[in-house]
Amino acid sequence: MTKKIEVGSLTHEIPKTQAEKLIDTVNRKADESKTSTESRSQHKAKGSLKSKHRTMLIKPKTDDYLKAIATIYGTSVNEVINQALDAYVAIKLQDPEIGSKIKLLQEIQIKD
């Protein structure tokens, strides 16, 4: 990746700096993230999901990383946390023992 500088009939190409390469990466990731965020918003708009409010304490260092990740992907900290929690739950649901316990808990809650 280079920058092309033209002065009259002279042309000179300057390689991009690390900072410029990082900015290009962030912009590319932001475009990709907007597409996935839009599809999630559309899914919520259909009424199949209703968001819940939770309050939690996050370590300052973890919060700093969450902010940085959100900035890199051009999304919100809330979306980064939701994606992380979705991935965690998906992994837990693959464990047959956990899955059966969740089903049992759901049956108990339905009867109440």
TrEMBL record:
Entry superkingdom: Bacteria
Ranges where the record places region Disordered: 28-54
Basic and acidic residues bias (residue ranges): 28-41
Comp. bias intervals (Basic residues): 42-54
Protein name as annotated: Uncharacterized protein
UniProt organism field: Lactobacillus helveticus CIRM-BIA 104
